[in-house]
Amino acid sequence: MFKWEQKLTEIIDKKLPLLAFFIVTLSAFYMRRAGYWYSSFDLQNHFYPELPTYLHTPFYTLVIKMLPAISITPVQQVKILVCLFDLAAALGAVQLLKETGRSDSRTALLACFTLLLVSPLTIESGLLWIHVDSLCMSAFLWAMVLYKRKRSVPAGILAGIGAALLTQYALLLLLPVLFAYKKTPELSSSERSEIKLPPRRFLFPCTALITGLILNAAAVGILDTDWRTGLFGLVNWLVISPESGTVFSGFISWLKTMPAYLGYMIGTLSLLTAFMKPKYRVPAAVIHVLLLLYIGHILQQGW
Predict the structure, then answer these.
(1) C-alpha distances in angstroms, 23 versus 20, 217, 303?
(2) pLDDT tens for the 303 residues of the chain, in order
(3) In sequence order, what DSSP letters do the residues of 242-257 get, joined into one string?
(4) Which end of the chain is more exposed for a tag (fewer CB within 10 A), N or C?
(5) Rounded to two decimals, what is the model's pTM?
(6) Is the separation of the CB atoms in 132 and 165 below 8 Å?
(7) Pick from 24, 34, 49: which is nearest to 107 by CA?
(8) DSSP secondary structure code for residue 150 in this structure
């Protein structure tokens, strides 16, 4: 083998993971190209300008109103933004795996990155329904990276921005607190009850909640919206059906819709859990497949 061939081989071996990430990224964006002009029922009926502001949080409404008036429509602008944050969320998941030390394998990191980018749950949420889950999830994942580095306040602010857009992501703020009570075999129940949690475990969710409330309160003032309308916008996902744009008709109707509201969050976390905890791979895969089947059924019904 010539020297230049040996040198080229060494460069390829060294840069191969980076090249693989680049190819996956290009492929994922090419897959999303097909949905750029697609307009679903949910998109047509629930995007901000067409319906009253109570269907969204005040901060979400403000962000949409601030989109620049350029040659492409607000819908297309949000689609581009969502696609970019799909990439940010996938990178955040990879970085979180590295920070927690759960996976040092380049193959595992690439697999996690690929599955998050090409998952149909990710694509349909952003391109078909233009839900901004990718913005919220990327904010949360990078917040957890900062949290692992013991930077609770910046982490809380970042997570709070995500929760301000979609309040269902506020549910994730409890994870660091819940993980603190994880049972350890070497401690008895009485010893565990005496454990004092580090202040940062509470500082993180408190900072996030305060950030989310401040952003939405500021948005109410800027938009000159009635505070009751703004307050209702914070809990819209619990009471408003995306199919009709009105209050849920009953519990069954509410239960059937929750996968549409929480599908991206649950799907992403299930994939991440599969890589962080190998023993949960089968349950995580089952959850993800069931979500895919159900979302596919919803799409067939014309959402």
Answers:
(1) 5, 42, 32
(2) 567 666 766 666 667 777 888 888 888 888 888 777 666 655 555 554 444 455 678 888 888 778 776 667 777 788 888 889 999 999 999 998 888 776 667 788 888 899 899 888 888 777 777 788 899 999 999 999 998 888 888 999 999 999 988 888 888 887 766 555 454 444 455 544 444 555 667 788 889 989 999 998 898 888 777 776 677 677 777 877 766 667 777 788 788 788 878 888 888 888 888 888 888 888 888 888 888 888 777 777 666
(3) TTTSSB-SSHHHHHHH
(4) N
(5) 0.83
(6) yes
(7) 24
(8) T
Look up residue 123 and give its two tokens.
Answer: 């694509």
Instruction: Provide the CB-side half-sphere exposure for 293 (13 A, CA).
Output: 6
Residue 91 CA to residue 87 CA, distance in Å, equals 6
Token pair 């193959």 is at which residue? 107
